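Instructor's aside before we start: the two examples that follow are unrelated to each other. I chose them only because their records fit on one page, so don't look for a connection. First example below.
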Amino acid sequence: MWAPAKKSGAFTKEINGGHRHETLDAIHGDWNWHKVQNNAHSLYRAYTNMVAHRQRTEEFFKGFSETMTAELVDLWKDMSTEPELRTGEWTSVYRPTISKAPSQNKVFQELCAKEDFPSAVNGATVAAASSNVVFVQEGLRIQGEQRKLKWKLADTGTTPTETESVDITQIRKRLEGAFTKWRSIQLKHYPALQPHVARTMKVAAEDQKLWLPSDFLSDAERIQVGIHSLTSFKRALREAEANDALHSVKEVLKREALSTKFKQNHICGQKDCTRANDVIRAHVATKRKVAAKYREARTALLRLGHSENTGELPELTDDDLRIKWMDTRVSLGDGMKAESWIWMQGPQNETGKSGWSTELDHVKWFWSRADRDRWREEIEKCEIEFKCSIAFHAGMEKVWRELVKRCNGDRRTDCDLRIVDRIGSDYFTGFIVQ
């Protein structure tokens, strides 16, 4: 409103005070008149949008409740939504107390226990390993070292310093030594892999394939080289690795958000801002690295037969690497934004109980119910606004009709009376119909 009104200053400054006052009144009256004209359309657009959101939240809440048992839903309905202070900490039904999925280390310990291989639990190395679990776990560790070396090479660029060159050489030597020990165990137990290993021995250590089950595209190829028995172990460890990567993504997102907030509130000056930007850039680089780790684990799972239709471990895009309401107040429009799916998945604490899945289900149930109730309330408020607007325009219609009657006795032209009648009667009646 004020931006168009400022344009009137070019000619109102040249007229007298009374004329200027009347001109500004006419400009603001015209603005208000157009706002009244568009009132019905604005309310209609808002109402249809709210109905769509309410339908989406109600369908989700109903479908999610149907996947739960009736006993659980009845139990959750009786729970209080007020926060409670327990043992010095505030708890709420809207906040989980444990994470969702087991970590890679916990899965490794459980698989070793199932194989009855206690030396692996006590930290056995691959040189003494006769366990398939330890063999696969060591292969994943080597792949992790390969990723770190690739990241370091990417960070240093084509012209590394002397110190960086020495570090890269040492890391590559350690990686080659780990490869030598691991290859000897691999070829001893799976000699059919010899042709595949021979093709990759000529490349750099960071680019060598390990020829684990995920490096083959079909079960027939895995059976042919004799590593099909490793598929179940590799899949369990890869799922845990993906969950660990999601946990790392969430942690670095928190650190990045807090560092950015701290810089905005407390840092000033060129020197301090430069150092703060270096910290934030380091968080961004770490975020990309752990996201790449998740994508690599997910790609391996897809090759091992993981279905994308289950909804577990979906594709991680750059748009998903975000955090909502981190150390800030809820601002206007945040309710329309959907939270990233990564905050509903991640590794379980090592001390977590077996009911962690039910714990997260009940938190999500309360959140979805609150979301549904909020959109129901928004629709009720919009309907009340409709009724108020209809009452206002009905009253204005009576006022204009009364003005028409009064004007009948005045000395005005028929044209003036028709204009007053059309503006006053037809328009406000038309809004009520809309």
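Example two begins here.
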Amino acid sequence: MEDEGGEEEGGGEVKEEEEGRVGVEEEGEEGEMVMEEEESEEEREEEREWGGGGEERELLMACATCELTGCRRDADTAPAALRKFQYYGYNGYLSDRVSLTRPIPDYRPDDCRNILYSPDLPQLSVIFIFVNEALSVLLRSIHTVIQRTPAHLLREIILVDDHSNSPELKDHLQSFVDESNAQHGAGFIKLVHHHKQEGLIRARVSGWRAATAPVVALFDAHVEFNTGWAEPILQRIKEDRTRVVSPSFDNIKFDTFEVEEYPLSAQGFDWELWCRYLNPPKSWWVLRNQTAPIRSPALIGCFVVDRKYFEEIGLLDEGMEVYGGENVELGIRKRVSEKDIDMVVLRTRGVAVAGAALEVGLNCSRIAHIERAHKPYTQNLTAHVRRNALRVAEVWMDQHKSHVYMAWNIPQQEGPARAALGCRSFNWFLTNVYPELRSYRDTLAYGVVSFLWFILFQT
């Protein structure tokens, strides 16, 4: 998933699989490109009236649709709404007018309501990471997790501020923390400040370091928790502490804040190491059990894990920058590593475990998440993702690393081999964990193909 102060939306950046959640490409039949029609004068006039095009125009039209007070009629309100949208990547103007504890649709299957959970589930620390988040969005994340988590299971909430400079957060967040701790007990909410922007990856590790509960839940700070979200995840981890579990995510529309159900999916990646939604595997469908988790090659952003076990497997790779690829790296590392590898050797390149499961799409645990229209916290997100992807390729992918270089159209350079780690090969990972990812052999060349047309004149 998206995102945060280095974020996933994650959520993070997601490319959608054709057989899962299908994205629409500007392409006609048989690969023929579709040319955009020229704007009519009426459309140009409407765009001038609303102050922009594309997502900005959609946002301001959504204001009128939602009947926000004077959004279209008041000349002062529309620019204020637009400024918030540009700053946050979602409709902060509308969020400020939505209840912090609003009810959201319960999309759990009926069978979830009949499941009995262990009476001695472990407690958890919920970690929110953010940079310049809208205060109302952040507070809604906090309020809903308090309201919809059994009090005996929620030990603490940790807020990791990745060097925000928002006056709204500076003026009001500490006051909210103090008031909450007076109500719930000292240290119930901890506020961790970074002195410089570190990005999503290192911010999550900072939150883990501040946590004390047996289980940690790492989330973006623009989510809303649904009823009964915690018990199904904690039950899975209680049964096997090596499980890393992600709930099912529903979408909060960035413009209207309407919650829509997302279909259940597995989570994988392409050769650029962008995350992708996948259809659940056949092994899940044959169970005919909508409450069963889905084993997955990767995670999209947010997840829950045993706190000590997370340290044993090396946390997230803090050598990565800002955001992107860390969840793919975690999934690969968990599945290809061995138990008996020296922890010191692995501190910079991942840690060994034996086949522990990544479980996603836990249908009885549902959380709604804002997918931003744009990510305002970094100027060049693609550069960070590319760097992180090449780091993963060099460490873990053996001869298959060439696929990552090809995907990013970068000439391949020989990097250090992963000789001393004693891990399974990446070919084993492709065969046993992620056979859906297509690989290529005997590639002679790769790059961008351009066509030149020449007009020949005969004299």
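The two ends are 62 Å apart (CA to CA).
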